[in-house]
Amino acid sequence: MEIPTRTNGFVAYPPHAILLRAFKKEAVLELWATDGEEKPYVLVHEYSICTSSGVLGPKRRFGDEQVPEGFYELDWFNPQSNFYLSLHISYPNAADRILGSHQNPGGDIFLHGDCASIGCIPITDDSIKEVYWLAVLVHSPGQQHLPIHIFPARLTNEGFQALAASHSNATRLVAFWSNLKQGHDLFEKTHRIARIKTRSDGTYIFADAGSTVNDR
User: Fold this and answer.
1) SS3 per residue for 52-100
2) Residue ranges in the chain assigned as alpha helix (H)
3) Could you tell me which residues come within 8 angstroms of residue 35 by beta carbon, excluding any fewer than 6 positions away?
4) Which DSSP state fits 40?
5) pLDDT per residue over 66-107, tens digit each?
């Protein structure tokens, strides 16, 4: 059995691994999949993000109503969610713990259904049913990591320049987005998930999947 892709190709069902990428400004959630560990990911489907809270920018504290931005994993399943079905997003990650509130950075961030949310990523019930079931199928055979990358917008050169121009007085925020763009661009180039580590100042460092990441 196969899944049609957005490029008129096919990927095995269930695939070897999946990746989700969320773009807040465009309100789009992308589903990518790969047939094997050495094969590139292909775009399978796009889902509409129903609603959102907060503004563009990362989540930094409890109660700020922000949707996180950065590189995360779906680390547990909730089949009895109040929002139909939900997948927990691993916020706060190492970067968030450095850059966010050291008292209470917040938590309980999910990808879920029901099209209602504060700080989470909601899609329709039909959409979350597809994503949730595929995540279960992929996770069960052994993919322990289910990555989800969350961006303020599509970080093409034009997209980043537009963000920088509209936030010209927020130099630290633009620098943060520039760091996210490095990871965004590496995936766009290779269609493989980079190896990601976090420096002591909270910035991400990236390397191709087959390379070594050095924190200098």
Assistant:
1) CCCCCCCCCCCCCCCCCCEEEEEEEEECCCCCCCEEEECCCCHHHHHHC
2) 94-99, 125-139, 157-166, 171-190
3) 11, 12, 15, 16
4) P
5) 999 999 999 999 999 999 999 999 999 999 999 999 999 998
pLDDT at 11: 85
The span from the CA of 77 to the CA of 211, in Å, is 31
- Calculate the CA dihedral of residues 113, 54, 75, 180 and round it to 10 degrees: 130
Give catalytic residues, as residue numbers.
Answer: 112, 120
Instruction: Point out which residues pair with 210 in neighbouring strands.
Output: none
pLDDT tens readout for residues 16-69: 999 999 999 999 999 999 998 889 999 999 999 999 899 999 999 999 999 999
Residues paired with 73 in a beta bridge: 147
pTM (predicted TM-score):
0.93
